[in-house]
Amino acid sequence: MTGVEMLGLLRGGLVVSCQAYEGEPLHGPRFMTAMARSVVLGGAAGVRVNGPADVEAVRAAVPVPLIGLWKDGDGDVYITPTAEHALTIARAGADIVALDATSRPRPDGLGLAETIARVHEAGALVMADVSTAAEGVAAAELGADCVSTTLSGYTPASPRLHGPDLELVAELAGKLDVPLFAEGRISTPAEAARALELGAHAVVVGGAITRPADITLRFSRVLKEARS
Ligand SMILES: CC(=O)N[C@H](C=O)[C@@H](O)[C@H](O)[C@H](O)COP(=O)(O)O
Predict the structure, then answer these.
(1) Ligand 1 centre from 228 Cα, in Å?
(2) Which of 107, 123, 145, 226 is the most buried (most CB within 10 A)?
(3) Coil, strand or helix: which one is 159?
(4) For the chain, how big is the Rg over CA atoms in Å?
(5) Distance from the Cα of residue 10 to its chain's centroid
(6) Is the beta carbon of 185 within 6 A of some atom in ligand 1?
């Protein structure tokens, strides 16, 4: 399958980010595999998965396109911070490797274009996780196969919003020739649909679907307030 065909499978669809941090009850390949199977049953067109072990296990468990990443380190650039991380995720079975494509320096000193070229040599596509329109446009020019608004709200260059950065979605949709994914704090089906209306190729939803502690908190907090 070509890269264009792979991205075509995600057009207009929902990608569900299945992630649980170390120390969380659902951490580990066993639970993330069950999560991925569950979201595919619910109609997810693709999944987004963190870390080599989860990527390898989920790859074997579901037939949909898999966006892999590796959150590592405690620096500013933590989403697949080096080319070595990216290649490990590609080898673990990701179809698309998501990596930090902000304008901040990468810890291995490699430029974005070089990092993207190495992932392509390994046979995977690259999703550029960005926080601003300028970063998205630059990443596409440097060879990224698609762009995602993942990091808006998490860099000094982007606004801290409670909900999704739909302004960025609209702006990037008008500027890019590669597919744009709307990602970050999308918490209702209506917001997801709006992102598509604004020109996103597909929508990525994480916590609102796959983080039961956070979902529970949304309910329990309201009930607690009602009691007091
Ligand atoms: C900023 C960052 O590190 N984002 C991560 C990227 O993989 C994940 O923690 C998010 O869950 C994902 O982007 C989906 O977003 P949301 O969970 O808000 O729907």
Answers:
(1) 32
(2) 145
(3) coil
(4) 17
(5) 13
(6) yes
The predicted pLDDT at position 12 comes to 98
What distance in angstroms lies between residue 185's CA and the mean position of ligand 1's atoms? Answer: 8
| Residue with CA at minimum distance from ligand 1 atom 10 | 206
pTM to 2 decimal places? 0.98
CATH of the domain at 158: 3.20.20.70
**142-153 pLDDT per residue, tens:** 999 999 999 999
3-state secondary structure of 127: strand
Domain containing residue 54:
3-227
Residue having the nearest C-alpha atom to atom 6 of ligand 1:
150
> Buried (b) or exposed (e) across 192-227, using 16+ Cβ within 10 A?
bebbbebbbbbbbbbbbbbbeeeeeeeeeeeeeeee
- Whether the CB-CB separation of 98 and 87 falls below 8 Å is answered with no
Cα(127) to centroid(ligand 1), Å: 14
Number of structural domains, the chain?
Answer: 1
ipTM of the complex: 0.99
CB 179 within 8 A of CB 201: yes
pLDDT digits (tens, 9 = 90+) for 21-64: 999 999 999 999 999 999 999 999 999 999 999 999 999 999 99
